[in-house]
Amino acid sequence: MVDTNTKSISLNSLGIKNATVRYQLTSSELHEETLKKEQGVASSLGAIAVNTGEFTGRSPMDRFIVKDSITEDKVWWSNINIPFNADKFDKLYDKVVDYLSEKEIFVRDCYACADENYKLNIRIVNEYPWSNMFAYNMFLRPTEEALKDFSPEWTVINAPGFMADAEADGTRQHNFAILNFTKKIALIGGTGYTGEIKKGIFSALNFILPVYKNTLPMHCSANVGKDGDTAIFFGLSGTGKTTLSTDPNRSLIGDDEHGWTAENTVFNFEGGCYAKVINLSQEQEPEIFAAIKKGAILENVVMDDKGVVDFADTSITQNTRVSYPIYHIDNIQQPSIGKNPKNIFFLTADAFGVLPPISKLTPAQAAYHFISGYTAKVAGTETGVTEPVPSFSACFGAPFMPLHPTKYAEMLSTKMQESGVNIWLVNTGWSGGKYGVGRRMPLKYTRAMITAVLNGDLSDYTYENYHIHSVFGVAQPRKCPGVPAELLSPRSTWNNDKAYYDTAFKLSNAFRNNFKQFEENATEEIRRGGPQRYAH
User: Are the C-beta atoms of 295 and 47 separated by less than 8 Å?
Assistant: First the structure.
């Protein structure tokens, strides 16, 4: 057996010289190292709490992809996928590895993609022990046997303490996250936010899987029922992706990143969860709350002097987080693979309060809504936001998608038709009026609607059972077990038809204006999947 704690590996091939390499430390050892270096504090729940410093979230304008022969004609270059010069990358890389040389470095070998046929071996090099503990939590953990002849395909080099010189290095400012597909390196510096590590590999897989492996990468959660039916939940932050997939009656495959293969299986990319903890409570989300114990890392939370976390305190950031290995959740699918996807849910928190709480989509509508990736910002979340603002993120994950959104949408449409999967649009947002007038759809009713779908209670697509929405064209069920019938029609909850339709047309226009950027790459069928009526 290999003693992974003392096994010596050299980083000379990476250009890191004379480093003290701490290889493959256990979670407990990294926890203790973080405390010893006074880089974290133990909370009363057992989890360690760290502060990620200047950056408490991703910095999208500082994410780059090296433009070279592999990426030049394939990447959708935009303000999301910003090109970086290959020579500049090499010079910046040399500076970073020189900065890490002669330091104590934490190194972890791990992998992404739970399906053996799609496995990506990764070596992660961290300046800080808690960043390496995050990698232990979030990536898949090889057995000691597998480590004997482990050969990394991709390398992540993570140096939060290194500050770039924007003018000399070609970055926008001192922080950066750069993907190099030719050298298979993710280079991250100037930011301690751990999400850059996981999203770097997610972005790489969002290129590798569709281009080379005929597999659709998805920013989604997934679970599987007792009969083996897989459900997939797409959704942006705050729409309920983690909450709704963590179901006591179904086994969790994963909460954030998955691939859908040509063999019609769905596999988790990750070995852990990275959940928001703003306003977390034991009563509302017992599984996630229970996962916060030793081995978990809390980020940017506020604690009292006894280590008790105030989950409502957002004085550091609204984006408070916890990472934990997936085995901290009791009801999980092992390995993290599901077969036979039967239902897909697009989750949106519509703060305008005009979309039905659940509706069934045609293939064209599904492609349109997938490309659109709609949710809404509510008043008060950002300075100057006084009423709901539509927010669109293509494929429910635009910041991580190197290819044009229509490429992913075409793959999804093909998979839908081949598998006969049903696609549902679920509004976890407002009912009875927009934000500030109506109220948020109660979680118990959203759960009841999803359970009804999974039980097959909403499957008959007939006029008697469904009403076609007059603005958005989606099919809303007339009844659903466990849900008051009047809640299923957003118009009837408003009690003011003129106000309802004025607001619905306003949102319809926002959809149409957002979709203009995709029209030339979308088929006529997909274009017709959007709202067909709009206000002048």
Answer: yes
